[in-house]
Amino acid sequence: MRAARQDWFxxxxxxxxxxxxxxxxxxxxxxxARRYGRAPRGxxxxxAKPRISP
Length: 54
Prior knowledge:
By secondary structure, this protein is mainly α. The protein is 19% helix and 0% strand.
């Protein structure tokens, strides 16, 4: 494993940046934001959140 890792590390300068593809697999979405907040009784909950469009 150590040899394979070292080979990969040494081959990095040969990579062409124009051919690299990055995939975002975090699966984050603005619709995952909470729709409701909490505040002490008698106080308003004032928090910023992304706009959720219907």
